[in-house]
Design goal:
This protein is an all-alpha fold. It has helices spanning 9-19, 24-40, 42-48, 57-71, 81-89, 93-105, 112-122. It has one domain (4-122). The chain contains seven helices and no strands.
Amino acid sequence: MKALNKMDNLDKAGLLCKMFPEELENLQNAIEKQCSYFLQNETVFREGWYQKGFFTAEFWYRLVQNAQKGVSKNEPLWKRPHWFTDHFFDRHNSIFAIHCLIEYADEEQCNPQLKQAIHLLFGSDKFLQITLNDK
């Protein structure tokens, strides 16, 4: 096994899948929940997007759409851990997947050991500070 500081996101996700295979369905559900959240609030997010450069609203929503394709497959990706990691954690797709994991780690139903593993492997800093103004 590689040292943690030598692992890329695919390696880390693969390790998480091996350590917590019983949690993969919950993780995919968390990704699906985040996809739904962002797609339902797309107009509001795009209008209020403040980050410039590489991390644009267009880039973020491309990541959301890529993740949505994975959760919409006929056979759930969580049933095949290798497909799960390849789809959600390859290249830029990992940005959204890691966001979803960190958000899920903050939820009460998240297994405490899984939460520790997520924070160890991917950190606990959120990529986006999300605030929606109710009108």
